[in-house]
Amino acid sequence: MKNDKLKNQYRINEQIRVREVRIVGDEGSSVMSTRDALNQARDMGVDLVEISPNANPPVCRLIDYSKFLYQQKKRQKEMKAKQVKVEVKEIRFGPQTDEHDYQFKLKHAREFLEEGNKVRAYVFFRGRSILFKEQGEVLLLRFANDLEEVGKVEGMPSLEGKKMFLYLAPKKAGAAKKSQQARDREAAEAEAKEQARQQKETEEQSAPANGGLFANAKISADALKKLQDADE
Hints:
7 helices, four-stranded mixed β-sheet
């Protein structure tokens, strides 16, 4: 069926009933009457294949039709192989998930999104735990916020039966925005590094003087204190 669909997609030889066509090939292109193109195809032992019927004039190739179909099928397979297969990965929580388990699942969700997969996170309420559905919603919203850099929310948390779902899709490469937490953390780290650098420079500059003026000043201060103590 697929082969028949591809075969019927193109008109060939006498099926082409326009006055003139543009012939394209390795050496360029030229416009000629359809009759001349058909005669040329017969002389070469190939077919006249219409590859772009909406052009003016329609574009054709002089090629063996079976070879042409093979090339088209090969090209379609290559394009299909290059397409990224998006999978939906599931992450399950309980309404009272502890911090260690949360961080473990957060790490896996981040990896899934960075690989281009979607994530379906849900909180499963067993028995009377459905009373904590607000707690489950808060957990999912925190989850979405922590993954803001790599994933975008496709819908707010919604309760379906005993499960509350949240869907995340991967952000396009280069379009991910850093969360405020990440920006604050990077700013704090940069500030700490700058302070450490300045402190190191100060220590290096003052090191030669520690045995001179600074030491003498300390000795003088100690001597002055002893004199004051003696006077008292």
